[in-house]
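Sequence only, no structure available. Ideas?
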Amino acid sequence: MAQFQFFDDTTSPSQGPAHIAKLRAELTRRGFDGFIVPRADEHQGEYVPKSAERLAWLTGFTGSAGTAVILLDKAALVVDGRYTVQAAEQVDTSVITPVQLADRSAEDWIAANLPEGGMLAYDPWLHTSDSLKRLEQAVARAGGSLSPVDMNLVDVIWIDRPAPPQAPVRPHPLDYVGETAESKLERVRKKMAEAKLDALVISDPHNLAWAFNLRGGDVGHTPLPLGYAVLPRQGRASLFFDPAKITNEAGAAVGELAEFAPIASFQSALDALGQTGGKVRIDSATGAVALIRRIEAAGGTVDVGADPIALMKAVKNKAEIAGSHAAHLRDGVAVARFLAWLDREAPKGQLTEIDAVEALEGFRVETGALKNISFPSISGAGPNAALPHYRVTTSSNRRIENNQIFLIDSGAQYEDGTTDITRTIIVGEPSPEMKDRFTRVLLGHIAIARAVFPKGTTGAQIDAFARKPLWDAGLDFDHGTGHGIGSFLSVHEGPQRIAKTGTTPLEIGMMLSNEPGFYKPGAYGIRIENLILVEPRTIPGGDRDMMGFETLTFTPIDLRLVEPALMNADEIAWLDAYHATVREKIGPLLDDQTRSWLEDATRAVG
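Reply:
I predicted one. Tokens follow.
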């Protein structure tokens, strides 16, 4: 069994009805008509500790995004397009109805289904100010009311709920972060002064980790220390963690910049913060309603807005960029070794999805630098590849069969950088339709990679570049084209993204993914993903500051799935040049057998 992967089902649809029945009994006992269960923790995180996997425990759904609304006589699970099929397979649909977000939001479902006069309960630690406003409007439309609870109702009935994590908090070396915590905090305080803030509550553990150059291990695959910080505009900061997690190294690294305090004292610290009467910034993206109410109740003024750290963290410095280059070179070698192995072994017809995951992880372990995988690998054969966020388990594990597509989306956490790569491989012979769809996805990928755009351009403005080749054939995909990437932090980092909802202007130094796809339910799925870095571009004769993308990922794209007749000369030239760079960068680092495979896998198309 692999070192970092977990393949067993954490729950099953058969458990869902019993858990929901217990929740309904608790609702009845307390006089509530319903309860809302978002897939989130107190920091509104995507990757959460086992103790916060309430949605999975209650419903059986294990996706990374979704919201359940449990009423006394009906229930819904609202998911986005990534999880439409997965939700229907994982939950007992006789008890809970999967709802696609594109058709109806959780708030719309509440407005239509909460009985008039009904009282909907919610946990104020799992909702931001914006999400609560939407809930309030939905409940008002239904003629009902909202009620906060002091303890999450799922926690009340979850008898064997895991304990909160206690991974050690450690400093992240300056060679990798490239800037001292003192310098970072000085920049943050400058932004606070501009906004006339007296204090900032740091509720996002990613921002806390970045600002104080700390890392931890409280959630799977992301080296996060779960905790909070209060940063006054003047004076020492306070970091709130479980005392068992604080190492001597972390204490020495933080030094005079901050004091460590027990997490149990955090709410009292919020009271004290409110009693100063100052203006306190709460992050609109991750700040729970409970934080706002506590400070306001103590007499403070809350300013809900963006944590300035998020944008600073998104723009990588020279050390972080150099680390990413090194990490991607190392990772490219591991993935190339895996793909060569897969080409040798898959045609024999014995490999399964789990075999592939374990082999790829083994090649990464052999680099000697792997700290963790950056997310559970998506290893999909045939119809499983059509599930964009499929996670293989022992019960879903499929054999990789001949004349089928195999999709592997995976990444690694190295101390110097975080990687994320998807490759789609044909085992045997592809159908003409497969080649057509693959090539259209590739054309969208190339369009993003070659994009040149003026300063101030958002990800939403270039998202369509990736979709046009698919649109031309009446096709599309239901996820964003790209997400931000952390530096030995989360593989999904904001605020930048290439998507219809990507409203943050791109800046030089931001890292993103470039991953258009196509999915034919029940048949196959295609995605091609490289990571890219925003860099300056010079256009002769132009009068605007322009930007473009440097490709960071170096691994072959399966030429057996490419239909050159659909490509123009410039697109073929890009593909040939990319593969020439792959050979140049990772070829000398490979063994003879893999290098020979690489030469053929990166042969010129033009």
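The first strand starts at residue 34 and ends at 38.
Hope that gets you unstuck.
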